[in-house]
Amino acid sequence: MENEPGILKKVDEFLQIFKKGEEFTKDLIRENERLRFKMAQLEEAIQNTGNEDKIRLYEERIKILDQEISSLTERYKRVEEENKDFASKYLEVETENNNLANLYVASYQLHSTLDINEVLRIVTEIIINLIGAEKFTIFLVDDKTNELVSVASEGLLPGEIPRITIGEGTIGRVAKDGESYFLKDNVQEVQKEVDLTDPIVCIPLKIKEHVIGVISIYSLFMQKASFTDIDYELFHLLAGHAATAIFSSRLYTQSERKLTTIQSFLELLKEKPKR
Question: I need a surface site. Which of 20, 94, 107, 113 has the fewest CB within 10 A?
């Protein structure tokens, strides 16, 4: 799968952090053994010296203990920081795995039906639940008029969604060029006023290099302030699966209509002419 390099990179980072923690622990054990050996030497020397030398050796012993405490404290802080980073990476990998698992289940549902309306419903649920989009539209290309026509939407009135000429504006350019568009500014600041011709995200639905439509997102739910690396991977995967499912269901619907027409025509031919 195309998303594997991204996941493998995160897993590799995760393992590197784990190895660093292991190295810190080994260094800590070695340092502790070195100081303990030196302390044992001092203890032996104290037993074989006079009072003045004992005082000097005790002072040296205290100094070594202070060094040990300082070293342990410093290493503890470093390990604590590594553990925080470790926990953060672990949570990121776990979140991505959960999202990819959810997307896998949703993709299975997408490809389990050839009903175009059911496919669009499933795509809509994926965009809401996995992406966190509040207002969006799914456009499909009308080959007769060379326009993008809304076939499903959320948070918007169907009558207010305009037809988009391919090549015009942000949405039209995405449909023409087949390249995704992501707003670089702060998403929550920009999406306060929705402009149906200027989305915050626009993803092409492609079958190989042929664009059959786009997903245009205008706003996110309040709890989602911005897009993450995981979201971009989900967009990429969703676009591929959604495009295939929509294309297959439309093709099936067209074939069913043609078959019905042919069958009706054959039935007419079978009828005997009245005398």
Answer: 94
